[in-house]
Amino acid sequence: MVRKKGAEVFLDFKFFDIPNTVVQAVRSAVRHKVKMLTLHILGDEEMIRAAVKAAKDEARKLKVKRPLLIGVTVLTSKEAKSSDVLVLAKMGLECGLDGVVCSAQEAEFLRNNLKRKFIMVTPGIRSNLTAKGDQKRTATAASAIAAGSNFLVVGRPILEARDPLKALKNLL
Q1: Strand, coil or helix: 74
Q2: Residue 78 appears among annotated catalytic residues
Q3: Active-site residue among 4, 5, 14, 166?
Q4: In principle, which of 10, 37, 126, 172 could form an S-S bond with 130, CB 3.0–4.6 Å?
């Protein structure tokens, strides 16, 4: 339904399981022609490499575009050191991921320390007027973009707002 409306699907399921289970999930995502999906980098190198291979093989078999595979470093609901996020990001990218999920606090650090092209997805986007909720590492849309983020994830500030359009305008 979403694709029929002209939009793309970001499947933020944060796959984290044994390689075979993740491979099956990734194949299904390819069949549904999602644009982007997430995997937990902590799932380990074997899981990530298997997911990358499965996405390539399934896309080639079906003659469809492979989804972008994005690795979750540390959830924005947790405290994190930039150095820990860097280690996870480096591992994920070396295993073939297209990018990483990280907070805006780490985005610029990663851009400066990983000398390669990759996608950064940044959750925890809030306006200065929005409560953080359970998020520890938040940022405004402007600061996340300035730090080098390519995609922003905004959930509750819009979904739970009385006036979602006004909330979106506040974020922008």
Answers
A1: coil
A2: no
A3: 14
A4: 126
